[in-house]
Please model this.
Amino acid sequence: MNIFISEKNFIHNINLLKLKYNKDIIPVIKANAYGHDIKIISKLLLKYKINICAVARIFEALEILKHINYDKNFKILIFESIESNYLKEIISNSQLLISANSLEDLSLYLKSGISSNQIQLKIDFGFGRNGIFYKNIDVLRNLIIKSNLKFSGIFTHLFSVEYEDGIKIINNFTEIVKELGKDNFQMIHLQNSLGITRYGSIPISTHLRPGMFVFGFYEEGAFENNLQKVFSLKGKIINIRDISSLKYLTYNLKKNLPMTLSKVAIIKIGYGDGFLKINEGSFALINNRQFKIISVMMDTTLIEVDDSVCINDSVQLYYDFSSTRNYLKMNMCEVLSILSNKIPRILI
Model:
């Protein structure tokens, strides 16, 4: 099995968002680019002169730097706070932008000699995960004035709040940016994919910060017309077995399995590759027909088939994200990001 990455669809999605909302885009490519492959995606960004992306952790940023041609204009924003043993990496790589998720973070970074031009301030409006608290804004303002600081950016997170609460966050964030001095920030952003759907183009922001939208999929409450799916998981049937005479199938009594046919097709993917056992009972697409997945083992998966299916026929998994999400009761962010790096990613 291979994961195929559509270059055409990826750049289509970014251009669609840029044109519709008249904002620059910070593609979020954390968690191995939501399973799409962070190396492939970062190279595409560089190819199309999209000079900013965001990741969660510093090791993701360092992985990108290993695989892209050096371009000092290409910036990588790291969301999580940087541990002290990595601060030298930040100082030696001007491409890396780091988030100050507290006043303590900011103090540590500045005392370590990191330029404020490499720092973005995150403001917390009740998400509870990280960010500088509203009550500390006066301290922050005084520090900016005293030290004449100019930052790479300022941002917050429009999480899954009720609509009116989101409006309050937008208004409060706008006032904070003005109070701290809008000209002190190169980038201003607060909208993930859900925030784009709910609030459209927000005047104070310079950038949108979508993750799943750039990869062409949606979650509950988030939707954007005309996005194209970037991901497809396809492979070949490696064997077909007649099991009509068997009492057992894999680790189960055959009579306990929800089968009506007497043949199974075998494909090379299993829960060891991140294709979880909860996929049992869902469907694969073979020759444009649906066939039930009977058993997911560590390295292989069995699909119930009829006589129309042959060895080397093409099979596709997760071909419809809506039905996958509904069956697994999991967001596609979860489903795709756990797919193993052992599965080859191929750019098409």
